[in-house]
Design brief:
about 350 residues, alpha/beta, Rossmann fold, 7-stranded mixed sheet, 8 helices
């Protein structure tokens, strides 16, 4: 008898087990993946919140800075307004002061004019009463040398009369030594020295007395009969005699300043001040021998020897005339003036004529 086929069951228990296991695995995988995604989202959310918090902090900081800047700007604006107000007030004050200064300057000009008129009247009266014994053409310019004071009762004028006093250039002065005495006397530089002494005498106080000495290789009084006595500034005849004698001097030879200072220290009447008219450093000395040619170093040495014996209590006021080729003389004579509390003046080329 034929065998019957068994009917195949599609949904068997084994199949259902497999289906359930697979579904459970998928479900487990889904749960695991979903948990990880949630953790990642939480971390991402935490990071976003951290960044957002930093942004909020930055925004708050910037808002605070903006508030501070705006407050500072308002303060600066207020300060600016105050400064502008003060500036307006100061401009008004400056304008008022300028007006006051203009009035003062106008008053000063008027006072100066009145003062000059009074001085002119005074000079006219003095000239009408008693003529000045010193023949000066323009008495209003007696104080021409600014800062140069002729003080004291006895003023000694020490005038250099060496060969260099005929020219401002040493080579030209050497060449002129072969000229006649009249040419040397009439040289432009020496005539300027003569007029300078005339101006200086006219600038002396009325109660002063003076004496003029010449120094070259030797030192001698200009007028022998006044070798001991001093000349009264108001003695017109004596003053004219001094100026006439000075005009007859012939500048020649060397210049020994050391010997001149030694003779001044031995004078019976100590000068109140000394006015030295020279054009540079000495060319001879008693302490040092001079050779055929005198160098700049020799002249500095000769000057230092003279400065050492200069009387420290006699102010030495030096009028230094220019001489090309003697660069050290201004500084050394300035040192001498400073040490003796005197003065050093190198006048303009036009002095004392204009």
């Amino acid at each position: 008898m034929p065998r019957k086929r068994r009917k195949t069951e599609i949904f068997s228990i084994s199949f259902l087990d497999c289906i359930c296991c697979g579904f459970g695995g998928v479900l487990l995988l889904f749960v695991l993946v979903a948990g990880k995604q949630q953790n990642a989202q939480e971390r991402k959310l935490a990071e976003i919140q951290e960044v957002l918090g930093q942004f909020e902090f930055d925004v708050k900081s910037r808002e605070d800075r903006i508030d501070t800047t705006e407050a500072q700007a308002r303060e600066d604006e207020g300060r600016k307004e105050d400064l502008e107000s003060q500036n307006v007030v100061k401009k008004v004050e400056v304008s008022q002061r300028e007006q006051t200064l203009a009035r003062l300057l106008q008053s000063e000009a008027e006072l100066r004019k009145e003062n000059l008129e009074l001085l002119a009247q005074k000079e006219a009266l003095a000239t009408a009463e008693k003529p000045d014994p010193v023949p000066i053409p323009n008495v209003k310019r007696r104080q021409y040398l600014t800062g140069f004071k002729l003080e004291g009762q006895y003023v000694l004028f020490l005038v250099r009369a060496s060969g260099s006093m005929v020219s401002d250039d040493i080579d030209e002065a050497v060449a002129m030594q072969s000229e006649s005495d009249e040419v040397k006397r009439q040289s432009k530089k020496w005539q300027r020295v003569v007029r300078s002494v005339q101006w200086l005498i006219s600038s002396l106080p009325a109660e002063a007395a003076f004496q003029v000495m010449l120094f070259a290789e030797d030192t001698v009084p200009l007028l022998e009969r006044y070798a001991v006595d001093w000349i009264d500034r108001n003695d017109g005849d004596a003053v004219k005699e001094v100026l006439a004698a000075l005009g007859e001097v012939v500048p020649q030879g060397g210049a020994n300043l050391e010997r001149a200072f030694g003779i001044i220290r031995s004078m019976s009447t100590v000068p109140s001040s000394l006015v030295l008219l020279t054009d540079g450093l000495p060319t001879q000395s008693d302490s040092y021998a001079s050779g055929e040619f005198v160098t700049d170093v020799d002249r500095v040495r000769f000057f230092n020897a003279a400065a050492q014996i200069a009387a420290p209590d006699i102010p030495i006021n030096t009028i230094l005339f220019p001489l090309v080729g003697d660069p050290a003389s201004p500084f050394l004579f300035w040192q001498l003036a400073d040490r003796t509390k005197g003065a050093l003046v190198s006048p303009a080329p036009s002095w004392p004529d204009t």
